[in-house]
Amino acid sequence: MPTQISVTSYYYRRGGAEAVMLDQNELLADRGWDIVPFAMEYEKNLQTGYDDYFVEEIDFASDYTRVEKVRKVVKSVYSLEARREISRLIDDVRPDIVHAHNVYHHLTPAIFGAIQKKGVPAVMTVHDLKIGCPSKLMLASDGVCERCHGGKTWNAVQQRCLKGSLPLSAVAAVETTLHNLLGSYKKNVDLFVLPSHFHMNKLIDWGLPAEKARYVPNAVDVSGLVPDYTPGDRFVFVGRLSEEKGLLTFVNAVAAAGVSATIVGTGPQERELRALVESTGADVEFAGYQTGDALFNIVRAAKALVLPSECYENAPVVLLEAYGVGTPVLGSNLGGIPELIQVGITGELATAGSVSSFAEQLSALAERPDSELADMGRAGRAFVEERFSRSHYLQGLVDVYRELGVAA
Fold first, then answer.
1. DSSP state of 40
2. Domains of the chain from N-terminus onward
3. Cα–Cα distance between 251 and 258 in angstroms, integer?
4. Whether pLDDT at 278 is above 70
5. Which H or E run contains 143?
6. Which residues of 5-34 are buried (b: 16+ CB within 10 A; e: fewer)?
């Protein structure tokens, strides 16, 4: 029975990256693998038999003393504890491979040097742009930003890219610079798995070794999702209510097009969005946080899912899930979104940040015959079944492992 150490900062279904990790672990376990988790201590973590190896929690929202804050900051850049504990875990379980997901700030890329020293192959699934960009989004206050290209990470400090904070941005810039100099990723990770061609090509341009990059698209299990190809009356957005998601553009476009929309999710921009709805008179309702059947029912009943992102999205799982329930998608022509939308077949694209472009597409979709929207829904369902199935994902993963000599 092959053994994998599955590495992530949070070991519960916290967000998209953790969902991909847990689904991957389930696929491998069904194939006969023994999955051993390694993470940060956290109260919401799933129960495991390996908590004794987990590293101390870091939460910068906590009321640490000044000395404790300094210690935590140093640890968030380079964690000696994580190096020590993963070395101990490797000695005890003797894995065939280590597969890492998000490790930044809590475990840190310091673990990869320890893994290499033990002679165990290391794979990392890259869920964002953090390897190149200190803020991981390649986004500044003035929009998409690539100022740090070529190692010019001081720009992250000048732009205050992390939450508008000078200290946090400085720590992130130091972290990126240090691990670039140490080669924590480039030298110590054997292969990188990337879910979108866009992110793969962007990170290669930023210095990721092309010979180590492998495209493996995310999987969505649609077998339990019942599609409904009858178009609804409202457009829907699902996600975090934050600036990079393009929701100000979306609300203004809804108002300009005279259509109806539902926003599902919570986040720091909610108050501003509610004020904008009030001032524009846009027909937008806020459904709050939803999950499971309640969420799928909202998306299933929509005319189309809208992703107006104004950042370099990777491969949004919510888009694939919309296809799974038979709903077309209108997305920004930015990042990894365009490679998931077959224009005129499964959905449409609009210009990121352009109210007029989104309003035009919203109006066109609203006026399109129900039969055409139903055809789009059917095409989306077929697309996700053919290209993004669990079996397709598992095969891609197995191919990566076999490259490293691991019998999968």
1. B
2. 3-131+185-219+389-403 (3.40.50.2000), 234-387 (3.40.50.2000)
3. 11
4. yes
5. strand 143-144
6. bbbbbbbbebebbbebbbbbbebbeeeebe
Q: Which helix (H) or strand (E) holds 238?
A: strand 234-238
Is residue 261 a contact partner of residue 254, using CB atoms and an 8 Å limit?
yes
Question: Residue range 300-317: average pLDDT?
Answer: 96
Q: Which amino acid is at 264?
A: V
- Beta bridge mates, 285: 262
Cα torsion for 191, 24, 199, 328, to the nearest 10°?
160
pLDDT tens, 118-176?
999 999 999 999 999 998 999 998 889 999 999 999 999 999 998 888 988 999 999 99
Length of the chain: 408
- Rounded Cα distance between 3 and 14, Å, is 24
**For 7-21, what is each residue's pLDDT tens digit?**
999 999 888 889 899
Residue entry with tokens 């110590």? 188
Measured CA to CA, the distance from residue 239 to residue 245 in angstroms comes to: 8
Question: Residue 59 and residue 53: Cα distance in Å, rounded?
Answer: 19
User: pTM for the full model?
Assistant: 0.92
Cβ atoms within 10 Å of 47's Cβ, excluding its own:
7
